[in-house]
């Protein structure tokens, strides 16, 4: 297949100023991540906008949405504009800042949602991710506020009173290991409440990192009733299970926690039937001092950008149409990123990635572009490799190497 490009846009044959021959590679629209932690400002030792952009481009992404739990928190126009500008300067993927729902993620007062929406960063997705917006009145107000510009609240669904001191999934393994459990109902009760609030307000709700079979069922029913809810699942919740905590290796500590095989199967089924709209990485880099310590003290979270596509291929098979929808078109739609997630045809921005489906590679934590090394896939041999990535016709990855 040949892709004809002019001024960063895909054009008809004969109108191009450059030509990309895909050879034997699979061409996918540039992947879009709705849930990325870049750690800048504040923890540039763990990740920066530039290092995270490199990891994203290498993973086949052309756009990532940067979560607001930075330091300072992205709860003002000033901070989201700074993150946006750093992304443009890095020039490897479009970095779309997510704004905080509440000031300082403290869950007490609404942040300046309108000012962030009107800023140069044009924020449309708001989230207190890392924390749940657990006050129902505040959640209602936030939904009402973003409805005006068809924005969306992305909820980290975790009833805090049910997860105090929680270390892992509450079940057979937590009982065996003697660790405090994070019960499925802590997630499900918030999702159930929030789909009802979204229905009441008539606003858009997005559920971050869905991890349980019960959550899938609630979202399925809400969608059947016409409620405007979308949902994401992470690569790790599609593959890994709670027994891994038995190793006491904090690389497997994550929020929400790894669940059971039954949950994994329900998440896969939900992703296939569209109950779960997208795969989002929840790329959560952590410095060695915060991760290579005792389980109870380790921060939750794992890397995801450079391995997401391979895990998707591993879990879903080479179903390119499904992968393009769940990892590009649908997340771009949810985030209102009009220049991403478009099919590769004349008129679309030339944002795409070329993948060698036959290649296999071994995950090397220190071989990744991220400044942190907390990948749960170390030593695993994964299918599918990103060879080239293009952002608006400019090559960001060439022969598996980032160009900047
Ligand atoms: N997923 C995690 O375990 N951690 C995330 C926060 C979050 O996504 O809740 C982080 O910022 O490190
Ligand atoms: Zn979260
Ligand atoms: Zn997150």
From TrEMBL:
Its EC number is 3.5.2.3. Catalyzes the reversible cyclization of carbamoyl aspartate to dihydroorotate. Substrate binds at residues 37-39, 69, 255, 286, 300-301. HAMAP family: PyrC_classI_B. SUPFAM superfamilies: Composite domain of metallo-dependent hydrolases, Metallo-dependent hydrolases. Residues 26-213 form the Dihydroorotase catalytic domain. The gene is pyrC. One of its GO terms (cellular component) is cytoplasm. The active site is at 282. One of its GO terms (biological process) is 'de novo' UMP biosynthetic process. PROSITE patterns: DIHYDROOROTASE_2. Zn(2+) 1 binds at residues 35, 37, 129, 282. PANTHER family: ALLANTOINASE. Zn(2+) 2 binds at residues 129, 156, 209. Binds 2 Zn(2+) ions per subunit. Belongs to the metallo-dependent hydrolases superfamily. DHOase family. Class I DHOase subfamily. Its cofactor is Zn(2+). The keyword Zinc applies. It catalyses: (S)-dihydroorotate + H2O = N-carbamoyl-L-aspartate + H(+). Keywords: Hydrolase, Metal-binding, Pyrimidine biosynthesis, Zinc. This is Dihydroorotase. One of its GO terms (molecular function) is zinc ion binding. It is an enzyme of class 3 (hydrolase). Pfam families: DHOase. Pathway: Pyrimidine metabolism; UMP biosynthesis via de novo pathway; (S)-dihydroorotate from bicarbonate: step 3/3.
